[in-house]
């Protein structure tokens, strides 16, 4: 249970930093920011295991999670043509 709570906290901070790094007006709620960071961490961990940077079961680091969150944010921005909705 504590691992999952830590993952949520990591996702929140990774999402906030990713939104600060990527230029533009990204109006998102705290929940969407947290989900963005969590998706970035999952993407970075998946890519790291695919490239043999991480062992199975090993999570991505904080910096790599931020990079993954920036990638996910950019993909979401392109998919919505710059329109974001507040949830």
List the helices and strands and how they pair.
Blueprint: H1 2-21, H2 30-50, H3 62-79
What would you note in describing this structure?
- The protein is mainly α.
- It has one domain.
- The chain is 68% helix and 0% strand.
- The protein is built from three helices and no strands.
- Helix 2 crosses helix 3.
- The chain is globular.
- The N and C termini lie far apart (26 Å).
- The mean pLDDT is 80.
Shape descriptor reads globular
- Please indicate the percent range of residues in DSSP E strands (runs of 2 or more): under 5%
Structural class: mainly alpha
Radius of gyration: 13 Å
Q: Number of helical segments?
A: 3
The run of helices and strands is HHH
Residues in helix, %: 55-70%
Q: Can you tell me the number of structural domains? A: 1
Distance between the termini: 26 Å
The overall pLDDT, averaged over residues, is 80
| Unreliable runs | none
Total strand count, please? 0
